[in-house]
User: Fold this.
Amino acid sequence: MSDAFSTKAARHVSYPFKRVVYMLTIGLLLGGVLPSAVAAEPEPSVLVQTQLPQQRTLAQRVMAYGTAQAPQGAAKSINSARPMMVERLLVAVGQQVAKGAVLAELVADPQSVAAYRQAQSALALARGEVERTQHLLAVQLATQSQLATAQKNLADAQAALDAQRALGGGATRETLQAPFDAVVTAISAVPGDRIAAGASLLQVSRKQGLQMVVGVEPADAHMVHTGDATRVTLLDGSATSVEGVVSEVRAGVYTPAGLVDLVIRTAGPVNWPIGARVAADIGVRKLSSWAVPRNAVLFDAKGAYLFQVHAGRARRVEVQPGIEVDGWVGINAKLAANEPVVVLGNYELADNMLVRVSKP
Assistant:
């Protein structure tokens, strides 16, 4: 009995003991495994692309478009001093002519011919009236006052005829010639047209010293100054270009297209057609500074900034952006020359975050 009781009691005692031992073993195992699992969890990182900052001289440029024109004072209007009728035109717009070349032939307008003949008749009548009054005065049938009036009328008639002759009224034909070596820039009549005295029939211009008149957007006009270096390209498919400078900014005077005109003087003479379309590439500002790709610069409530990679971590750097040219931005900032700048993936970064740099 005692042995059986002892055995049964031992079983009752050993079961709790084994359970306690089992639980302690599981606890020890868990206590050894879980802390190491938590400690092994990796720190978050961001995959980025980088590029080293560069020291560059960036030149901000403005594009403008316009035409080649004769400078002020180089153009001249060709006209007749009296009413005429166009008989023949011997030139066309754009044609080059030498000094003295015949541009047009005119014939007298019937009204001008009539005016000249009337002036001749008035002079003859006034001259005869003076002679008649002198004879009457000799026989005391006219007074000295009447003779003075007749003499005044004679003088007036002579002046009127002289004026008609000065206007070319005595000639039935007229030839208009080029005053200098020139290019015909405009023709405002056709054969058969009657033109008033002094009205422009043709316009010619000297070719030497062409100037380029181009228009820029008002938002860009304030950046352009006289003396800015410019490259002007002829838009005829040949890509011919010359160097020049801005000689005048016509600020405040908008063209019908809403642009501000600039005048550009070329460095030397150009043999381009007057009125040819041109493009002007104007360098308005230069800046030597650190330069980074445009994608590297971000903005938030504090202003502009970028990230440089230092010891595998993103380091935020505050910057002041400047000129942007061809995808590069000049910046004013304290950058480490040997630390690359994050150009892709920077939107996901925060200061001191771990980064992984992708290979190009």
User: Anything to note?
Assistant: The radius of gyration is 48 Å. Residues 2-39 form the longest helix (38 residues). The chain has four domains: 1-41, 47-58+288-357, 63-71+207-285, 75-205. DSSP finds four helices and 22 strands in the chain.
